[in-house]
Each structure stands twice: as structure tokens, then as C-alpha cells.
Amino acid sequence: MTGRADAARPAAVVVGGGLAGITTALRLAEAGHDVTLAEGRPRLGGLAFSFQRGELTVDNGQHVFLRCCTAYRGLLERLGAARMTRLQDRLDIPVLSVTGPEQAPVRTLGRLRRAGLPVPLHLAGSLARYPHLSPADRARVVRGALALKGLDLADPALDRLSFGEWLRRNGQNAATTAALWDLVGVATLNARADEVSLALAAMVFKTGLLSEPGASDIGVPAVPLGVIHHDRALVELERAGVRVLLRARVAELKPAAPQHAVRLEDGQLLTADTVVLAGAQDTAAALLPPGAVPGQERLAGFGTTPILNVHVVYDRKVLRRPFFAALGSPVQWVFDRTTHSGLAGTGLGRAHPGAQYLALSQSAVRDEIDLPVAELRRRYLPELARLLPAAAGAEVLDFFVTRERTATFDGAPGSAELRPGAGTGVPGLLLAGAWTATGWPATMEGAVRSGHAAADAALAAAGARAPVDRGDGRWPR
Q1: Ordered DSSP codes for 249-260
Q2: Which of 76, 256, 283, 346 is a plausible cystine mate for 279, CB 3.0–4.6 Å?
Q3: HSE-up (13 A, CA, CB side) for residue 51
Q4: Distance (Å, rounded) from C-alpha 320 to C-alpha 318?
Q5: Of the candidates 132, 421, 157, the residue with the CA atom closest to the CA atom of residue 293
Q6: In contact, 221 and 59? CB cutoff 8 Å
Q7: What percent helix, strand, coil does the chain show, rounded to 5?
């Protein structure tokens, strides 16, 4: 049995080494707890990780954040990794539509970008010139945005209605939904408008587009995700005194007084005053004792939504911008991953000095997540050639896919009541994870916020005063 190293210090075990677990463990260690973090995988980072494909460093998927993601940005600062990301000075999303036959496609490029004006005028100029909507449809978007701005995010009725139904009630049509609401919503909510609750959609659009002019500026990692979420996180956790156990899958949780016991699959037993279950909802549901959470039996039915990532390496440069979103195509978002994957330093890159690596991020694709690679290749390579003229004559050096079948929780109408808070009915047993009641969709921001909530609850139970979240992206002190 492994107990705490110092009987004078409260002991905590954090189960799960994703962003929620990293945040919780760091906060508790900084507050003087003796913390052990147990992660079943051989790495930290949860579902935001990297792996090696030969010499190529591959992120499992394209992860982005916004300027309004203050908690995640605060974690980046705490890990010393803020400079390992790039944040736009001003929102700028190239939106490329393609119509017509494969032999003679018609391509139209528009941009969603903000000006240095107050909300909502910061997007007015961009919307007025947006070629993917008619003047009448642009007016519809303005009407919808003003209606969104008037919603009260604390109103529980918002969770009982789908975003799609609300859009139709407020004058939106198929064109505005495709060219704006779903363009942004699918990427941020991992769901189309008819599949997601109005509460989550309103939170995303009000916070990202209608709160402050710079709230929606887009940030992306400039290095592999593993460098940030594993390498830097491991260094800072160990520096804070956290004992990190990798390949340490938890088999059983035994709540008891005065301490809880956590048994690992290898038989090791950890004891602690506080246990934080910071993994996915199915993992937490399997470990929670009966009756720990109101309506706990419903957690088993808390659905998930997949994300598919298609990776293509061309022998030449086919895309001349960091990313774009697509309309009129199965392709959703395309990112240039050439530099931070290390392609130039691989044998493939040396043999083809101009090679480019693109990643397609395909959200809410339940009908595609299990398709064979050959079928996905037949589906997406012609579409890339329709969107990018240079791709039509380029050689494909590599094509592969990564699949996250349970990438996010399902934010369907009614999902809010399935999301528990940090506390449970068992003293000293807490929950964290993007699926808990953060008010945010399943994002890196939501995961970090849940870690802060669990740490605050643990500190409050121990009689310690939790630092005040100033909302400015800085780590609480």
C-alpha cells in the first residue's frame, strides 16, 4: 500500500492525465497537497496528443483555441508553453466554396474577419462583403446575431431546444446555416445545428463572436501537441512535486473514511483524502460508487460524438495559407501541418523538398468514422483537388486517417441535466472533465475549467481559500 509521503499534508489522487487532470494536479500541489496523478496511457494530454508515424510527428487531430479561452491560455502560461502557440492578431477565416462539376469547378474565396471596431460592428464590414451569402441572407444573419445577443445563458429552457430549431424561428435558412452558423458551430460544438442544444450554441456564439472584438481570434499550436500537453506538462507537474504514474490504469475505487483507496490494475494501492476522477464520462461512471451523483444511472447513456482527421502529404505545396474552411464540399476545415510535424527533416521530406502535409478536421461525422481508409481516400482526394487546383496535379506521398470515436460528449438538447458538477455525494470524491457542468462545450477550455472547479472544491473542503479566477487568462495565485 502506498500512502502519502508526509502525514501533515493532505493527500490527493487524480485519475486521468488529460487537461482536466493536469490542471487539478498542479493546483492541488501548489496548494500544499501531496498529489499522485495516475494515467492509464503512456502519455499525458488525454485526447489532445501526438504520436510518431515513422519520422513524422502527427497530432491525433487539429486542436484550436480562441482568445476567449482564458483558462486554457492560463494553463499554457503555467506550463511555459504560450510561445509554442500562435494566436491571430485579428480573426481571419478564409472560406472557400466550390460549385460545379469536378472537371470545371467554380471556386469562390470569402473571409470572415474582424475590424478594430466595437461589437457587433467588428464583423459588419466582413459580413457585408461575404460572397457566400446574398444581401438578403446577410440581413438574416444580422437578425439572428441580435437575437442571440439577447439570450440569457442562465435560462435552463435554452437546453431544451435545438440550435437549428431556434435558427429557423429567428429567420435563418439553409444558406445562412451552412455558410455561417454550421461553418463555425460544427468545428466548435462537434455537432450540426439540429443536433446541439441552443444553450451550448448560444454560449459559443455569444462568448466568441458577440462579447469582445478579439474574443474569437484563433490560436493554434506551433509545435506538436505532445510537446505542450505531455513534455511541458510532465516537467511542470514533477517540478510541483506531483508523482506522475503512466501506464497506471485504475481498476477500482474504494471510498472510505478517513481515506479513500484507489487500486491500480497492477495491484498497487493508493490512499488519499481526496480523489478526483478526471477522465472520460464512461471511466468515471465505472468507478463511481452507487448513488454518488444524482441520476448517476443516466451517465451510461450520455452519448459521444466522433471526429475524423484525414492526413495527406503531397509532393508539392498545394495550399498557400495556414488553414481554410470549405463550403459545398464534404471537406470541413483544412490545416497546413508541414512545419510542426517535422516533415522537412524526414526521409520523405528530403526526397521531396517542397512536400506539404495537410490535415482535414472532420467533425460530427458519424456516418464516416468507421469507413475504410480506401473509401475515405476515394472520397476526399478528389474533393481536395476540386478545392485546391494545385492538388489535382500533385502526387500523394502519404494518406492516413486518425479516428476519435468518442471525441466529445454529445451536446444534444437536454444534455445539460446529464452533466454533474465537481462535487459528489461522497466527501473527498470529485469529478473533472470537459463533460462535467462547465457551461462550455467539449473543448480544451472546458476541460481546464473543470480542473479548476475540482481543485477549488477540494481546497474548500480542506478549509483552504481558493484563488480568485480573474478571467484574464492568468494562472490563479
Answers
A1: -EEEEE--SS-E
A2: 283
A3: 11
A4: 7
A5: 421
A6: yes
A7: 35, 25, 40
pTM: 0.95
Residue 57: how many other CB atoms lie within 10 Å: 21
Cβ atoms of 202 and 153 closer than 8 Å: yes
Paired residues of 111 in beta bridges: 94
Cα 109 to chain centroid distance, Å, stands at: 27
Based on the number of CB atoms within 10 Å of its own CB, is 402 exposed (0-12), middle (13-18) or buried (19 or more)? Answer: middle
Place of cell 478549509: 463
DSSP state letters, 391-434 = HHT--EEEEEEEEEEEEEE---TTGGGG---SB-SSTTEEE-ST
pLDDT at 7: 59
What are the residue ranges in the chain where pLDDT is below 70? Answer: 1-7, 465-473, 477
**232: CB partners within 8 A, 6+ apart:** 79, 80, 81, 84
Give the residue ranges of DSSP H helices in 170-214: 174-176, 182-189, 198-209
Whether residue 330 is preceded by a cis peptide bond, meaning omega within 30 degrees of 0, is no
CA-closest candidate to residue 471, choices 67, 45, 118: 67
Could you tell me where the DSSP H helices lie in 258-335?
281-287
How far is it, in rounded angstroms, from Cα 272 to Cα 458? 12
Question: Using the 8-state DSSP alphabet, how is residue 346 labeled?
Answer: S
Q: Which residue has the cell 445562412?
A: 176
